[in-house]
Amino acid sequence: MASLPASTPGSRSSSRRPSIDPSRLVPMDRTSHIGGSDDFNVVFVGAGNIMFGSPEGPWNHSFRLEHKLGPRLKVVALIDPAIERAAAVLQKKCDSFVVSAYQDTRIFKSFEDFMQQMSEKDRPRAVIVGSPPMFRGATTPGRDIEMQIMKHLPGVAMFIEKPIATGPEHEIPEGFKIGKMISEAKTICSVGYMLRYLKAVQMMKQVIDENNLTVMSTIARYACAYESIAKPEWWDKSKSAGPVIEQGTHFCDLSRYFGGEVDISSVQAHSLEWYENAGRLSKMAIDEEKIAPENRIPRVTAATWKYDSGAVGTFTHVVALQGHNYSCEFEVHADGYSLKLVNPYVLPVLYIRKPGDDNETTTRFADDDPFFSEISNFVDLIEDIEEDPESSTILSSYEDAVKTYEFTWAIRRASEKSLEAKAKASKEAADVAKNA
Ligand SMILES: NC(=O)c1ccc[n+]([C@@H]2O[C@H](COP(=O)([O-])OP(=O)(O)OC[C@H]3O[C@@H](n4cnc5c(N)ncnc54)[C@H](O)[C@@H]3O)[C@@H](O)[C@H]2O)c1
């Protein structure tokens, strides 16, 4: 009989990463803004949807920062090469009751321009980076905003949106290099994997911790409503790097949050491509003909992998739903337990089955706001006001987010390899038939 390998050291603890007591995750309308009276200077990089909101979803960092910081918020700079867009969002703010945060905001085309003109009184305490990922996460000029911030504003906290980059696969080591620099400099840095801050997710963590469970399997399914995705770049792999890296990344990240480190060499995947019969879509909001055929995105990507702990993960990303709302589910299985998170974007519901009862308990989280919780934790950490260090925790560090990025690239690459293998086999079969 073959001997069983010893369990991986640390595998039990792999599901016990930093977490927050779910009772501490309070929506905006049930908190008051942070205390103190001094200005809290902030720089925004990017004047787009994530920063100022859009009908596509509930994201809007400026809104959460306004509530968290109250009259202390001073947005000293808004950096965006699209000056007109920046001016338009700024005007809206100045026409509203939050004018005090924006009346002195200056618009800059680039971070370099801001640094050249920054006066000492404008020195920010935090830089919120919501530019497109193709302009960050690398070490080349123009795409190295994180390194520029660390160089010119050492010690200033950074909030960086997900995914950390969408550059070519061979640049992943640059992401790790940036992550190392950030942690060595002890810079406060949070990456926008806000699903980790969902109350339901933290409740799942609590069940795992309290019962000392070892995760056996994670099962993730992410079905987006493609009809409402109107950004041409999203549909273009040369810009977004594809839907797993750009969007499915949230669920790949959650998988890692619960399952621990992924054995990257074990990742296998298949995809349904746009040119296959089953991959035809009838309600796309963009003209796909304008995108080069080799850059068009897959409609379905399905992956499996092993975690270092031995646990097994699966993920399916689907571009098939119409309408507006996404349909996403994430399950974690452990001995005697299943934890199922449904609809995390719209109305999170958590189904828990425990030993001793075949029925699931259902918990609904009607007024949870993970976007506020991630910003709130980030600000608390900068202010260093918490007497209880457990309550302000960054759940997604840059270094960790690079691992999610690497993982999503591995899924994309594995699906492309399967396609290549299939094409090769078909060609060989055709050659055999021809020569028969
Ligand atoms: N966590 C979430 O749920 C969530 C939701 C939406 C977007 N996002 C992420 O936020 C990021 C931005 O997405 P978005 O929807 O706001 O995009 P967007 O296109 O609406 O806005 C991006 C803005 O950045 C500007 N920009 C381009 N290059 C720049 C540069 N070098 N420096 C500064 N600004 C630059 C653009 O002109 C644009 O105004 C993406 O990484 C996206 O994945 C995350």
Automatic annotation (TrEMBL):
Q: Which domain of life is it from?
A: Eukaryota
Q: In this protein, which residues make up the domain named Gfo/Idh/MocA-like oxidoreductase N-terminal?
A: 40-193
One GO MF term on file is: nucleotide binding
Q: Which InterPro entries match?
A: Gfo/Idh/MocA-like_OxRdtase_N, Gfo/Idh/MocA_Oxidoreductase, NAD(P)-bd_dom_sf, OxRdtase_put_C
An example of a Pfam family matching this protein is: ox_reductase_C
Q: Where is the composition biased (Low complexity)?
A: 1-24
- What SUPFAM superfamilies does the record tag this protein with? Glyceraldehyde-3-phosphate dehydrogenase-like, C-terminal domain (SSF55347), NAD(P)-binding Rossmann-fold domains (SSF51735)
Region listing for Disordered, in residue ranges: 1-32
Q: Where is the Oxidoreductase putative C-terminal domain?
A: 196-337
Q: What name does this protein carry? A: Oxidoreductase C terminal-domain-containing protein
Supply the source organism for this entry: Crepidotus variabilis
